[in-house]
Amino acid sequence: MRLVIRQALLLSFKDTRLFFKDRFALGFALLFPILFIVAFSLALGDLGPEDDQLRMAVATEEESGFSREVIDVLTITDSTGVDEWDPKDAGLALHEGRIPGYLLFPVDFTQRIFSGEGTEILVVTADGDPETEAVLGGLARSIGGRIGTLSLAARGVTELEGFGSLDLVKLGQLGAAPPSIVFTTEQVGDVEPFNASNFTLPGYLTMFLFFAAALGAEAIARERQTQTLERLLSNGVRRSAIVAGKMLASLYRGLIQLAFLWALGIFAFSIDFGVSPVAVIAVSVLMAVASSAFGVMLASLVRTVKSASSAAVLASLTLAPLGGCWWPLFITPDWMQAIGRLTPHGWANDAFNKLMLFGAEGQDVLMHMAALLLFAAVFLAVAVTRFRTVSAS
Questions:
Q1: Which residues pair with 59 in a beta bridge?
Q2: Is residue 236's pLDDT more than 50?
Q3: Which of 160, 196, 256, 323 pairs as cysteine with 346 (C-beta 3.0–4.6 A)?
Q4: Beta-bridge mates of residue 56
Q5: From the centroid of its chain, how far is CA 287?
């Protein structure tokens, strides 16, 4: 075992030195991804959230009454963000998609309040729009809570003064009529546009990490074709040491790519690692392990240098979009997200998005880390089983 480890390390150091001497390979691994990151970061830089005021629609079926007072307060200025609609117009606008929903006060709203009966404010939204339902529901609950408190106070005055029924005029003379609804708005902070590099850089880092590892299969196929691997065996190098050495060399290159591009992202693009930078680094390292195993597996499946090059390009350009390297997976349909989970790219990019965009912690991406480890194990098992040192005739 010690001999195998020593041989593997020597082979990996040799391949790494050759990597630094190959200017094209070095440029492809370190400089070429920068072009994509810069281009797409600039293109997507204006797609961040805007600080637009939320507009809400309200309507009442009463011609006069307490609902009218509530609406007058809510729509007193444009800054409140509330617009009054006719009930029929609001229904038509919702059907046509011009508004996402509205609050509706029923025709007996005031009567039921002052008779001591329960009443309701209807929240009308389109199907499958939980955001609008939550916003309008919150406004309705605020109004309902205030009205409920005032209604209890009014009924208490009625009982104390011995009124047979709730008389709004008498209550007003006694100073006990329900006071006006008060509506206030408060800005708790500015909406800041997101940094597009927080998802473009991880995506293209993942793509080029696997791309460079896949292109390494071409070098292995060339060594097999020139009988370099066969001569290594004749000189006492173990077959397992060759596999391990090739994978370690690819892993070294991947870690160099990670260090360079992450450093560039921090200092040049001001990317944010989120609340758990350690988890981002851990996912990155596991992704490098999976990519290096993928490259060796690819070399074990091809026969010639030409087929290795073609397979590397085809695999990279197929897995990258499926795995969310060209666009975030969370904006794609569910079926495409499911397909993305069949690739290591999908698990890595989903972990990066959760950590760097949505504030997830390390424990939230443990399954993603386990998936990357599983991919690496499967790739390595195939590589060990199918790896050939002699070119097929």
A1: 104
A2: yes
A3: 323
A4: 82
A5: 18
What percent of the residues of the chain are helix, what percent strand, and what percent coil, each to the nearest 5? 65, 5, 30
String of DSSP letters for 161-207: HT-SS--HHHHHHTT-SPPPP--------PPPPP-THHHHHHHHHHH
Q: CB of 288 within 8 A of CB of 255?
A: yes
pTM, two decimals, is 0.64
By CB atoms closer than 10 A (0-12, 13-18, 19+), residue 90 is buried
250 phi, psi to nearest 5 deg: -65, -35
Token couple for 192: 């800041």
Nearest-angstrom CA–CA distance, 149 and 155: 10
pLDDT in tens, 191-212: 555 677 888 889 889 998 998 8
Tell me: the pLDDT tens digits for 273-298?
A: 888 999 999 999 999 999 999 999 99
Gap between the Cα atoms of 366 and 167, Å rounded: 65
The CA distance from 146 to 140, in Å, is: 10
Pairing of strands 82-84, 56-60: parallel
**Bridge partners of residue 104, in order along the sequence:** 59, 122
Rounded distance between C-alpha atoms, residue 133 and residue 296, angstroms: 52
DSSP letter at 321 equals H
Angle at 269 between CA 268 and CA 273, to 5 degrees: 115
Phi-psi label, residue 227: left if phi above 0, alpha if psi -120 to 50, beta otherwise: left
103 within 8 A of 122, measured Cβ to Cβ: yes
Residue carrying the six token digits 């290594």: 232
CA distance linking residue 116 with residue 111, whole number of Å: 9
Query: Which among 20-24, 161-165, 170-174 has the top mean pLDDT?
Result: 20-24
DSSP 127: T
Write out the two tokens for 111. Answer: 């009567």
Gyration radius (Cα) of the chain, Å:
33
